[in-house]
Amino acid sequence: QDTLIVWSEAENYDLALSFQEKAGCDEIWEKICQVQGKDPSVEVTQDLIESEEEHIEEMPETSPLIDLPTCELNKLEEIADLVTSVLSSPIRREKLALALENEGYIKKLLQLFQVCENLENTEGLHHLYEIIRGILFLNKATLFEVMFSDECIMDVVGCLEYDPSLAQPKRHREFLTKTAKFKEVIPITDSELRQKIHQTYRVQYIQDIILPTPSVFEENFLSTLTSFIFFNKVEIVSMLQEDEKFLSEVFAQLTDEATDDDKRCELGMDDLQVRSAATDIFSYLVEFSPSMVREFVMQEAQQSDDDILLINVVIEQMICDTDPELGGAVQLMGLLRTLIDPENMLATANKTEKSEFLNFFYNHCMHVLTAPLLANTSEDKCEKDAVVGSTKSNTICPDNYQTAQLLALILELLTFCVEHHTYHIKNYIMNKDLLRRVLVLMNSKHTFLALCALRFMRRIIGLKDEFYNRYITKGNLFEPVINALLDNGTRYNLLNSAVIELFEFIRVEDIKSLIAHIVENFYNALESIEYVQTFKGLKTKYEQEKDRQNQKLNSVPSILRSNRFRRDARALEEDEEMWFNEDEEEEGEAVVPPVEKSKQEDDFPDSYEKFMETKKAKESEDKENLPKRTSAGGFKFTFSHSASPANGANGANSKSVAAQTSPASSNGSSSKNATLTTAVTATKGSLVGLVDYPDDEDDDEEEETSPRKRPRLGS
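Structure tokens predicted for Serine/threonine-protein phosphatase 4 regulatory subunit 3B:
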């Protein structure tokens, strides 16, 4: 049975081997069959069952099948043994069911039950429990018709009260006759309909309350009982629908303002049982036709305010669930998930349900869904404990267990949206800065909630979408994740593994923009983590990419020697152009000579010659500009920019720019690989190159509209 191997030993002793994977089950099954000399392609190899199934179709329906013992008190143990012994054999179950049906045996057994109960014959009552339970497991609709008739059903319930495993019998009949009350909101005049409602309620009670949860061997034994209940409900609904007065009377009372509150409470209002019933009805509708529900709510949006839209009412019921375990909220979340799942949305030539409904949902409902998340991660809801001598603030979300569970449910639904929706959820996340708010929950005292927040970010990164990647890097959104990893310390737990898996995914998938951001900003904090090679691997990927970029730059100077390559007609800003002089003997140090710049010159070779004329005279000044190591362990560079001597302002308009570089980015080997040997004239121990540094993001936009890009070179 896929991942199960089931067999019987002796008459009433079943065993099973359960496997996690079907492949493992198949492997062991083949070895068992090899030892037994059986064909592994046959699902059932047990000799008894195999021989019985070969003859099941040949069995005459009216032939005497099983000789039943006489229905007497002293035969109850024998009858119980017979009933329980046939359950493992399909053919014997069929034979026993026919025998019970033909001889009217069930009514005789129930008469014996009344005798045993009057005599307080406990042993006989225990045998009758086993007999009636076994007859239910025969799974025959014809027997159910007898057992669940008005004449027999309460005695059947009575037999099932005497479970031998219980010290005292249950009082199911007392509950059904005295506690459970049948209330008619609108009087039901059809006696057949009333009888069907009573029967269905009692049979449902037997299945849900009285009978124990079936084992793996018994799970199919009650399939006919489930069908019996289902078809009863179909009949009830059909009979109500055919009643010309019933439904019209219900809606008339609902809409009548004169109907008092007590009467309305029987029809609706804020009652837990009514809410549960309404949730069940809504779940049936969604499972039956999610498209029909979506069509209704979109039509409703044209006539109603957002607050009373059906979807928003469902979301509010989910948010306001008073159950500590949020049982109702979990059910409603599953229904919402079904409604927003694109897999069950229709697409036709004239109409696309997906785009229409998702537009509706994100415009009218998403703000209701995310309201608790945004409220619990706002600045005034979080406590910030400043750490003395540290720039980091410890943000703690004030979430109790029930709130944490609710936020976890909301995050689960939002994670589903990230996976299955495209630009709708992307626009919402970026417009609301939603990921930043979600990552506040990384500080929750509830680890399951922190993992939900991390899972949300992991799904976003898993898309490998550069829009998301830029949003993450510009917002510095790795910081709360790395802080959570560092705060977790040396504990080897699920949070630790999940964070490392996130960074390992980035490394394996070689997401360059994220790798560069992580290494340049966080490597100093992460390089001490050596029990995995993830972070060293990120550094290696980063350096390899830098080397590749530098090799590309080395091919640019050959183009510069051609007169065809000319600068854009726009003049560069004064502080966008720099000349570097790199000393090969002192790694990480650079000197910057004054730049010869003429705003009227378009020809790069001409400006380069003018620069070389002033370079030699300035070599002695260059040594004064050597970088000094800062307290943070990096290097502080001071770049001098001098105006062209041609304009008579030699050094007068010079300005200095300070840049801080981290050890991760001041790699000596990478600096050497960036030398432009063919592009510039080298002096002893130094190289010179042109670098274009844009002041702000507007430069990037200007470049995209420019007919010809400016040269960008680096040393």
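Confidence is low (pLDDT under 50) at residues 48-63, 383-396, 561-611, 619-715.
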